[in-house]
Amino acid sequence: MSVEQWSFIFKTLSILAAWSYLVKGDNPVYTAVEHFLVGSATAYGIVYTIQNQIVPRIVQDIIGRGKWGYIFGAILGLLIYFSFVKGQEWIARITMGFWIGYGAGYSLAYSPPVFLTQVTDSFINLRAGDFAKSFNNILYFLVVVSTLMYFAFTLKKDKGVLYYGSRFGRYALMVAFGSAYGSITMAYLSLIIGQLTIIFRDTLHLIK
Amino acid sequence: MDWKKLQWIDVRILYVIIVVCLLIPMFHPVGLPVAISDNTRLVYNTVESVPDGGVIWVSHDTGPGNAPELNPMIAALARQAFRKNCKIISTSLFNQTFGPVTTFEIIDEVAREMGKEYGVDWVHLGYRDNAWPATIRLMIENIIEGAINRDWKGEPLDQMPLMKQVKSIKDDVDLIFCTTVGSPGYADWMTYVSEPLHIPLTGGASLTMYSGVQPYIRSGQLKGFLGGLRGAAEYEQLVGVAGAGLAGMDAQSLGHMTVILFLVLGNIGYFAAKRAGKNQ
Hints:
- The complex is a heterodimer.
- By secondary structure, chain A is mostly helical.
- In chain A, 80% of the residues lie in helices and 0% in strands.
- Chain A has three domains: 1-67, no CATH class; 73-121, no CATH class; 138-208.
- Chain B has two domains: 3-30 and 252-279; 38-245, Rossmann fold (3-Layer(aba) Sandwich), CATH 3.40.50.
- Chain B has helices spanning 11-27, 38-48, 67-83, 98-113, 132-141, 143-146, 161-165, 169-172, 186-197, 210-219, 228-239, 244-247, 249-279, and strands at residues 55-61, 87-91, 122-126, 175-180, 201-205, 226-227.
- Chain B has a six-stranded parallel sheet.
- In chain B, helix 3 (67-83) links the parallel strand 1 (55-61) and strand 2 (87-91).
- In chain B, helix 1 (11-27) runs antiparallel to helix 13 and helix 3 (67-83) runs parallel beside helix 4 (98-113).
- The longest helix of chain B has 31 residues, at 249-279.
- Chain B is elongated.
- Chain B starts with 10 loop residues before the first helix and ends with a helix.
- The mean pLDDT of chain B is 91.
- The interface between A and B is large, with 46 and 55 residues.
């Protein structure tokens, strides 16, 4: 039997073990494959990171090309391990502070163009020519405005336009959530089909 | 009949019925027609608009859970790209273990079939560390620098003919095709790469995320986006190859009907119970 066939048998056994959760809840077989998955993924991750990230960065960039600036980044990163040193945990926060600050700053610098395109895209022609397009645009406009009304929590919405607008916005949100739920159901069925294909086609060769 | 009981059917029975309903069409395919949406056509046309011999950056950002939906998209894309003699540079940034291996296997299978050579026609960079914006930032300027001169197996990139031609994302990449199940995914590619560099972005998403993608398709920030197995099946039809996407559609359709039936029965049970409560 080839390595590939063994791998399919192993995949099938793992799938069945994972599905055992549906029948028996948390059970030893399920827990065993769960631990196996976490353990093997962690081990693979460590080896991959050392081989493809850390060693080349040190050997090639720092030693080979004299990019000594990377050492400052490495030291900053290593400070995170101070979270294991009693009484010195605050030092680890320097790394986290840098990381969060860098992430937030980077995101703030790049996000506005993406967001603003969304805003300008909501400026649409309500009389677009043909009836269907106009109807769609009007509906789109109403949903955008009413949903914004729904999320305006600092305003009193007990009567008038705000009351009816926010209610309409809530219904629009419910339609959106319903649509998302339908999509998710479709996605999960696709995933089951994928697992069944492994069991019945790749392992048992019962279907083509 | 006591309709109220419909609410309390043992969920394990429902699981078995769903599995059986999915299996029947897999053993006896019906070949139900799959209509092609405008959205999928837009994805196909966007890939088609890349000049012959151009460079497509493929990021298969998936884990094992969503692979059945997204893998067929990558296979079909590779086929369309190689047919146009386009070059592919691939990454897989969502999952460190499963993603890179799967991405390589899918593209490699298509490449071998179409006589394309690794290193000349395509290169796989695999997973890159979690500092996503920083890593990609480096690759925008200099791919070899950002990837530390290593492909996914640790082979030196500067020895590969393709990487002598493709130096940076900003100057040499014509299209980004990414699959998405979370972050990193389309939002990151859009925010940090496609929007600032004006590189067209398309791809496909798991249906769990597909609703969130819609506003970006509408605004043109995404040049179409495939939705789940259904999107993959439509795309396969346009590319002209029946792959895993189309193969799964019969099962998917019968599965939907079963879920809808359960929803209807559950609601009948709910209203019957409510009515019985009022009458008491």
